[in-house]
What does this fold into?
Amino acid sequence: MTENDLRWLDTVVERLRAGESEAVIAEVQHALERDRTAIQPLLTLALAHSYQGQGALAEPYARQAMDVLAARARADRDPVWYPRYLDMAYLALFDAMVIQGRFQEGARLLHPYIKRSPRTNMLCILTAWGHFLAGDKEAARAAFQRLVPSPRDRHLAGPDDERLAVSPKLFLMYRYMSIQVEPNELFRIAQHVTMYHLTGELAAWEDEARRNAHNPYGQRLADIVDGLRALLERDLHDVGRDLLRFAPKKRGLRPDETG
It folds into this structure.
């Protein structure tokens, strides 16, 4: 499989989710012994160790992947595979740092890379995520302000918005973070309504918190997931009732006359 073919990554993710982390690590270690500069094994090992919540083991592989990519880019001018793999290496290193509780350091890692990445919005959200985990809501808000505007209102855009280009799981956390850092009440209510349709993604965050329960990230994430769950479990009727306060009055009806 060529480096320009990323199907190997789908296979790795499927196996990790199926509980085959140890088998994946053992197999890839053998491949890396044959070629210490093979980029796919390096990224796979970083991903597998991070999935297990072992950030200290994942970090060296992520850093080595970045070093290998830098060296190969100098030797091969503008290789087509380079941006994809560089994104993956940055994200692998970010994950490794975050798992170890180095939230701000992870955010600072991504910040200067945002303009260079083809996935600007995803990195803006992850940068905000690092700051948010660290409790720095002002820095998280600043990261949100770097999002590229959507053809639709970016605050109400759906997870299928191509300009946003993030996974539904990350999109849900983006919504939650926005509610926490945005002072405008109407904005918060509108965000809640759009979040309501992403409740299925909560299970992915709950699983991530369980897998990382032994490290600083999992402990911080557990608190956030509790808050996210509480918000999503609010009665939708209450949200609708809140929205009526901002809706134009029709036929002289007051909010308490709508039933």
Observations:
- Residues 55-75 form the longest helix (21 residues).
